[in-house]
TrEMBL record:
Region (Disordered): 90-110
Cited PANTHER family: NAD DEPENDENT EPIMERASE_DEHYDRATASE, P-LOOP CONTAINING NUCLEOTIDE TRIPHOSPHATE HYDROLASE
Higher taxonomy: Eukaryota, Fungi, Dikarya, Ascomycota, Pezizomycotina
Transmembrane intervals: none
Name the record gives this protein: NAD dependent epimerase/dehydratase
Amino acid sequence: MHSPMSSLDHWWWRFLENHVYRIPPPPKRKRTKPMQVLCVGPPRSATESLQQALLALGYDHTYHGWDIVYDDPPIPATGWVKLARKKWYGGGESSSPKRKGGKEIDDTSSEGDCQITAEEFDELLGHCVAVTDAAASCFAAEMIRAYPKAKVVLNVRRDLDSWHKSAVKTLVHVNESWSFWVSSLLDREAFWAWHVYERFLWALFFRAPDGDMARAIKRNGKWVYREHCDMIRGMVPADRLLEWSADEGWEPLCKFLGKEVPDVPFPHANAAGPGGGWKAREEMAIKSMGGEDHILRED
């Protein structure tokens, strides 16, 4: 249930995206309020609990990975695939070799860099004042540069072995779910949910050159985690950065953000059972397919 990274820019995937599983692009948003908080920690680092905490502190809306696939239709997964292609494949346009006169020509950018602007992020995040989870971790460096006035929270798990065990138990479980994979072949929105996460965001984040996200998490997870956190520490000035874990609760988070500590327990979401929060949403997605009339339905 995986595809080599090199093939994700192939014409075949674009054919599936633009024809077989085509959904309307999400409406382009415009920023209405300044971006205030970027929570750039890796997955399985209390991302959903942090979203709920920020919402309770008045950061509305706080964007989470669920928004990518469960936002109001048309879901914004297509927009995040476009940005992922821009980051990892150059410019968002096909970087597959082109031919002229029977010979391959190299028309890819030679600048060796990728810049994603605030305006590009705002098309997906313009209604948000904070971001957690997949979008923030996979595009951490780009968002930190795009929103230089936003405070940065590096949400972590202090025990790396515990984090890795949780990632294997949840993210790998989803990647190895035959029911979810089959549903992604039969339903447009399920296709995009699988496509954006299992083929693009997490596969690329965890350095899966062969496209096998599950194996990449098992093989690379710990060093990718360390390298990601070291990058954030090196990029962000100390007065703009909070390194935080969920077991520290409200106090350091509220102090950093200049908010009063709420008189309620700190939220704890997304339990680490098999599949975690993904399991419930996977089942919901499959049930929502209904009968035959939902499968590859026309919009």
